[in-house]
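Internal ticket - ligand job 319, NAP:
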Amino acid sequence: MSSSTLHSRISHCKQVMVQDVRIGDVSRPVRCRQKSQQSFLQRLPPTFLRLATMSAKDQLKYTNKLLNSRILIIGGSSGLGYGVAEATLEHGALVAISSSNSSRINASADKLKQSYPSYASNIHGLTVDLSNTDTLERELDSILKRATQTLGGKLDHVVFTAADALAPMKLADMTVDRIHKAGTIRWLAPLLLAKFLPTYLTASYRSSYTITTGGISEKPIPDWSVIASYAGGHHSMVRNLALELKPIRVNGVSPGVVDTELWTMGEEEKAGFFEQSRKRLFTGRVPTAGDVAESYLAIMKDWNMDASMVRSDGGSLFA
Ligand SMILES: NC(=O)c1ccc[n+]([C@@H]2O[C@H](COP(=O)([O-])OP(=O)(O)OC[C@H]3O[C@@H](n4cnc5c(N)ncnc54)[C@H](OP(=O)(O)O)[C@@H]3O)[C@@H](O)[C@H]2O)c1
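stdout (structure tokens):
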């Protein structure tokens, strides 16, 4: 099909359905009312659409901030990290998701490719195991190095959502080993990662490093003293790392309960737990990872957000 035929078919599309099209540095929505035209647009490769819509004149300074950004999501194979992967792909970013289980990463990368077929080449999966303190430094350096190689240059954003199973424990059950283990992935890994970030992240106010804490950092729960201590540490971690990594921005997200794979209890128990949580929340609903992913997006896109902890908890701190 010639580009003039293509242009005239796209010109017939008037309103409603929106297909994001990348044009050089910007992404542009192409709108189409008719079903036949919608499927026509969906089948087109992005490069054709790019050529065909070059004449569009709208400014897109908000929706294009992440276009072609290189983003590593450590813990991106499920839960909040997977939500951030979806959100950043929708903004046209180049995304590497990583976690410890290679088959899970591949399955998640395939799922993302199915959801975003036009961005399939933007999606990459990398393995990293952050559970072993003997190999942690090497793993952290290696994941950043492989991400820069895979994504084709220094990174623009790193998001850390990796975590192992929650380990609440009674004070009487605390041991040095159990306390260390509870904090290795959630607290030690994101802190130690900062050692390597200046080498692999572009030194700019546009770049960011975002870690994850949780409501427990501000509101006590019985048997959660160990986790709460690490989670509270994340608040001062973002402030001090922001100072030491400047101009790279360092922030955190603090969710309340979110419906993710983190909650591994049986279906019935989980439903009961979510129902209790739902009743407590001002919003009256347990959020999805996609809801909370918006906070990570906001941090990446707000070039003035630094040394901050963003709460996304449906009001649960005050409930
Ligand atoms: N969901 C909630 O309700 C909630 C509420 C408040 C705070 N948070 C916090 O938010 C963070 C993310 O939670 P989530 O709900 O997204 O959890 P999730 O769905 O369980 O995701 C955890 C991620 O970490 C990865 N991971 C596990 N072990 C790893 C290891 N040894 N090395 C590298 N990666 C590893 C997992 O993949 P693999 O298993 O493949 O390694 C997965 O990608 C956690 O710190 C959590 O405490 C969650």
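Auto-summary: Residues 155 and 201 are 5 Å apart (CA to CA). The first strand starts at residue 17 and ends at 23.
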